């Protein structure tokens, strides 16, 4: 299922995206606030491969992002998956190449996923677990209408419900 926004195409991530995802993760700053096997190239590729091929359930998963003006140019991804790939909460997340930070693409893509999850899938809510130092991702969470839910000093959990989403003045 392909999702569309004003400026972006979002399509389910496939193994064809593995090298783009790997290259993005290697760019300075991209994984600074995310735990993962980033230091070992083999483990890193295997992690991405596993995340691409995992079955998260109907309507869930990762979507690769492409600019409508450059439809072959991978700029990042967004996700709706069970938290830490196990749940029970459903997590929304985003990761973009640094060249595309600060332009509103993450919030634009995340809004499309919120609409998909709430309006099409009828899910009750989503969380985002964000490192407290990741100012950019915290701003995206607030911009899409999420509110701080839990704080364990290092990770801030933001949440949004279907009711919160429906009440937002701008989408």
Automatic annotation (TrEMBL):
UniProt domain N-acetyltransferase: residue ranges: 8-163
GO molecular function: acyltransferase activity, transferring groups other than amino-acyl groups
Keywords: Transferase
Keyword Repeat found: no
Keyword tRNA processing: no
PROSITE patterns, per database record: GNAT
One Pfam match: Acetyltransf_3
InterPro entries: Acyl_CoA_acyltransferase, GNAT_dom, N-acetyltransferase
Gene3D superfamilies according to UniProt: 3.40.630.30
Name the record gives this protein: GNAT family acetyltransferase
Organism: Thalassospira xianhensis MCCC 1A02616
Record lineage: Bacteria, Pseudomonadati, Pseudomonadota, Alphaproteobacteria, Rhodospirillales
């Amino acid at each position: 299922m392909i999702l569309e926004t004003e400026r972006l195409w979002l399509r389910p991530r496939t193994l064809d995206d593995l090298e783009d995802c790997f290259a993005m993760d290697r760019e300075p700053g991209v994984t600074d606030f995310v735990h993962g096997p980033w230091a070992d190239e083999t483990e890193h590729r295997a992690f991405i491969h596993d995340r691409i091929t995992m079955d998260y359930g109907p309507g869930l998963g990762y979507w690769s992002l492409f600019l409508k003006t450059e439809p072959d140019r991978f700029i990042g991804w967004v996700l709706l998956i069970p938290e830490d790939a196990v749940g029970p909460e459903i997590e929304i997340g985003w990761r973009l190449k640094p060249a595309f930070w600060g332009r509103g693409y993450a919030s634009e893509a995340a809004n499309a996923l919120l609409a998909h999850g709430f309006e099409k899938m009828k899910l009750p809510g989503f969380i985002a677990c964000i490192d407290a130092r990741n100012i950019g991702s915290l701003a995206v969470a607030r911009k899409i209408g999420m509110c701080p839910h839990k704080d364990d000093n290092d990770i801030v959990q933001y949440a949004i419900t279907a009711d919160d989403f429906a009440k937002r003045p701008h989408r």
